[in-house]
């Protein structure tokens, strides 16, 4: 079991869009296994994207609403219908903010062997698919926040011990 440390906001890998995966080989399968070990290695995790363990590859794993899996090179189709609710991120530890997301999402991508894969989701799983795909595009959920919520989030991030330690 290889559980990797999670990269924290401020690490450049989290802000860099990932290149698409082009080789569906043993190296990719090892990355998927490491991501799954990292996801399942601690309670309460819904997903881990490759950049969160320092790898710039369009791959993530998820375990939400009773569905566990992975996606390589995902693209999303999102519903117009929105959901509210707090969202958190392993890369922004212990902070949660109300984050609007699409209520329904369909993710198209591939499995670790290069076979096409589609995941259709609603609610929390749809939120997780959107959140993890954002990581692959170099975005964090706080980037989607607006107005007072965004100001509060940035203020709280700056006030955390892990943020002050990075300065």
General description of the model:
- The protein is globular.
- A hairpin with a 2-residue loop joins strand 5 and strand 6 (92-98).
- It has helices at 26-40, 123-136, 147-159, 161-166; strands at 47-49, 59-64, 67-78, 82-83, 86-89, 92-98, 101-102, 104-110, 116-122.
- The mean pLDDT is 95.
- The termini are far apart.
- The longest helix is centred in the first third of the chain and has 15 residues, at 26-40.
- It contains four helices and nine strands; from the N terminus they run H-E-E-E-E-E-E-E-E-E-H-H-H.
- It has a five-stranded antiparallel beta sheet. A two-stranded antiparallel sheet has the order 4-7.
- By secondary structure, the protein is α+β, with helices and mostly antiparallel strands.
- Helix content is 29%, strand content 30%.
Key structural traits:
alpha+beta, 167 residues, two-stranded antiparallel sheet, five-stranded antiparallel beta sheet
Q: Total number of β-strand segments? A: 9
Percentage of residues in helical conformation: 25-40%
Shape: globular
Mean pLDDT: 95
**Cα-atom Rg, whole angstroms?**
15 Å
Q: How many separate helices?
A: 4
**Main sheet record:** 5 strands, antiparallel
Unreliable stretches: none
**Based on helices, strands and strand pairing, what is the structural class?**
alpha+beta
Strand order, sheet with most strands? 1-2-3-8-9
Distance linking N and C termini: 32 Å
Q: Can you write the helix and strand succession as a string?
A: HEEEEEEEEEHHH
The percent range for strand residues is 25-35%
């Amino acid at each position: 079991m290889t559980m990797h440390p999670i990269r924290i906001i401020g690490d450049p890998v989290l802000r860099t869009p990932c290149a698409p995966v082009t080789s569906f080989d043993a190296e990719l399968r090892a990355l998927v296994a490491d991501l799954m070990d990292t996801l399942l290695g601690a309670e309460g995790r819904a997903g881990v994207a490759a950049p969160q363990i320092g790898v710039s590859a369009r791959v993530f794993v998820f375990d939400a609403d009773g569905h566990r899996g992975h996606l390589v090179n995902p693209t999303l189709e999102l519903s117009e219908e929105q959901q509210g609710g707090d969202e958190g991120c392993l890369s922004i530890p212990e902070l949660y903010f109300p984050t609007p997301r699409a209520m329904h999402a369909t993710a198209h991508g591939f499995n670790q062997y290069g076979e096409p894969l589609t995941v259709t989701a609603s609610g929390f799983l749809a939120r997780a698919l959107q959140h993890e795909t954002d990581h692959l595009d170099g975005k964090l959920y706080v980037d989607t926040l607006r107005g007072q919520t965004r100001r509060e989030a940035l203020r709280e991030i700056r006030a955390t011990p892990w943020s002050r330690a990075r300065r």
